[in-house]
Design goal:
Layout: H1 9-18, E1 28-31, E2 45-48, E3 54-59, H2 62-67, H3 69-82, E4 90-96, H4 97-102, H5 108-112, E5 119-124
Parallel strand pairs: 3-4, 4-5
Antiparallel strand pairs: 1-2, 2-3
Length: 127
């Protein structure tokens, strides 16, 4: 895939909003401008999966995650707890697809995640 030189936050958000099924089949955005139940971290989008379970979406550039992977995971865990906990809520950390294709498949975020974690790294195709 050809590298996209410039990417605005608006384009990134629009790609996720217009086709949430590319993140997971049947995923439906239910809140495009969420407020956090707590006072700290706010998801970029809130969705529900085909079973009706909440899925929190955090849009991020891979370079930002790589600088502080522990912080990224901690903030997403905090979000999950604010929305009801790991038994009920999942979260996607979403990056532009071209960033994952150009770099290693194994990012520092992959190394931090527990396989049993409700946090998944996903990519979104930007058109």
């Amino acid at each position: 895939m050809q590298r996209q030189r410039e990417l605005t936050a608006r384009e990134f958000r629009k790609a996720a909003l217009e086709n949430p099924g590319q993140l997971e089949e049947g995923l439906e955005i239910v809140d495009a401008q969420p407020d956090a139940p707590g006072n700290t971290v706010v998801p970029d989008l809130v969705a529900k999966d085909t079973d009706g379970n909440p899925v929190l979406i955090k849009l991020n550039r891979l370079a930002n995650i790589e600088q502080r992977p522990e912080s990224t995971v901690d903030r997403v865990r905090e979000l999950i707890n604010q929305y009801g906990g790991e038994d009920r809520v999942r979260a996607f950390i979403v990056v532009p697809d071209f960033e994952l294709e150009e770099g290693d498949e194994e990012t520092s975020l992959h190394n931090l995640r527990d396989p049993e974690s409700p946090i998944e790294l996903k990519s979104v195709v930007l058109v």
